[in-house]
Amino acid sequence: MSSGWRALAAGGASSLLLVSLLLGAATGYAQAGSPGATSSAEAQATEGALQQLAAPGGVNLAAPTQGAFGGSLVAGKATDAVLGLSMDDAITRGLRQNLGLILQATAEQSAHGQQLEQLQALLPTVTGDASIEVEQIDLATYGLKIPGLNPIVGPFQVVDFRAYLTENLINVPALESYLAAKHNFAATKLSADDAREMVVLTVGNAYLLCLADAARIDAVNAELATSKLSLDQATAAHEAGVSPRLDVLRAQVDYQNEQQTLISTSNQLAKDKLALARAIGLPLDQAFRLTDSEPYAALDNLDPAAAFAQALKNRKDLAAASEQLAAAHAVQTAARADQLPTVQFSGDFGDIGQTANHSHSSYSATGSVSAPILQIAKTRGEEDIAGAQVAQASDKLADQVQQVNAEVRDSILDIQSAAKLVEAAKSNVDLANEALSEAQQRFHAGVSDNLPVSQAQASVEQANDQYIAALYQHNAAKLSLARALGVAQSNLKDYLGGK
């Protein structure tokens, strides 16, 4: 396996810290490399730069949605037609059907429900009650013994229709609990917006992996044609008596190696297309073809400080963390306010009598003030818990800001490194092809055997692997930068297109 192609698998799998499905796809991708390539300084440089993508810079998602961005809810049924799929189409489908985004939407709905529950404590509560009772009372059981009066009263009927009203006039803990729920709901909404960025990241990376597979297949097909030409030349030379049988065997081994590589690479493309289909909700038996080609455009004049400032404005996960900190502060205030008195009004109004036609209205109204007198342990415990939550939320936010800073800077470094690697790898491809041409001409002229041809073919394969790896890394790094800046959904074309 060539080290350049192995680098593509390692870098593609871990650079973006995607879901386990993509990790599995990229790891399997490594199996498509050529079996006999040797390492070189250029290959080691490519691999080292690609492995930088495994550095910290991923996105820390909430537990309910972590790992879900590789899945989806399937929409529609497979057809016999081959579907043309661009990256824009794939992302649009992912934003509709991706499981991570759908689960985040349900989490948002749950947070909204919790906010409404806390709001009810601040609103009037009205309940109704209707009852019909038949009673018989023994007055003697209550100590009432009146001479000449039968102690058994009844049976008699009581009909009561009544409405009850309760309302907290002053309740600071309930108010702060509502504000905390409101901030949590806002944080969940922002997390849902951030999940859209993760969908673009996941689907975009899956699409780029498929493009790299397709580019690898094209390269292997070209290498296979070259190996077939070398085999034909060696066979003809042997039959003419000017070349030993060893040249034919060597050329045949090279040809069969390329056939094996083509089978492996074609299989990997099929698997990576399945991973892409899983992320965007396509039926797995739906045939589709990629309509985009792998882009390459330089992205220059990148200022880490300016990019970090832009990320602070755009990153929804940072805004969500700020809302979570505000919610923690509200909970802390609620804990302290548990020592304050609460003012409540309650009342009822109804109609009571022996029957509905023989009844009279009745009502009651009560205003009450209650305050804790001795609950030191409870209050102190609530304050300690709330204070710890505030400290945790504050520390997490501070660390997340630095994490975003690291993501931005890592992506910029990867872009700059990959751009140089693309240029070097492209030059290596041209040089390797030229060396192969020279070796073929020397063998055809009978100046040497075909060992230099075989070695030159391995160099061409390695150079192609390195070029494909560097090109993938460059695009993946630009996609990562767009995510790090919080503009993957809105400005993805600008970054992949190099504008």
Keywords:
Outer membrane efflux proteins (OEP); 2 domains; 4-stranded antiparallel beta sheet
Structural write-up:
The structure is a single chain. The protein has helices spanning 3-14, 20-29, 41-51, 87-97, 99-120, 172-239, 245-280, 304-314, 316-337, 376-444, 451-485, 488-496; strands at residues 83-85, 125-138, 152-170, 288-290, 342-353, 359-370. With 499 residues, the protein is an alpha+beta fold. The protein folds into 2 domains: 3-117 and 174-333 and 376-496, Outer membrane efflux proteins (OEP), CATH 1.20.1600.10; 125-170 and 341-370, Single Sheet (Outer membrane efflux proteins (OEP)), CATH 2.20.200. The chain has a 4-stranded antiparallel beta sheet with strand order 2-3-5-6, with no helix packed on it. It has a two-stranded parallel ribbon with strand order 1-4. The chain is elongated, with a radius of gyration of 36 Å. The two termini are 36 Å apart.
The spatial strand order of the largest sheet comes to 2-3-5-6
Number of domains: 2
CATH first level of the largest domain: which class? Mainly Alpha
Largest sheet: 4 strands, antiparallel
Mean residue pLDDT: 83
Q: What would you call the structural class?
A: alpha+beta
**Shape-level CATH architecture of the largest domain:** Up-down Bundle
Q: Considering the protein shown, what is the CATH homologous superfamily of the largest domain?
A: Outer membrane efflux proteins (OEP)
* CATH topology name of the largest domain: Outer membrane efflux proteins (OEP)
Helix percent reads 55-70%
Distance separating the two termini:
36 Å
Radius of gyration from the alpha-carbon trace, in angstroms: 36 Å
- Helix-strand string: HHHEHHEEHHEHHEEHHH
Amount of beta strand: 5-15%
**Strands, total number:** 6
| Unreliable parts | 1-66
| Overall outline | elongated
What's the number of helices?
A: 12
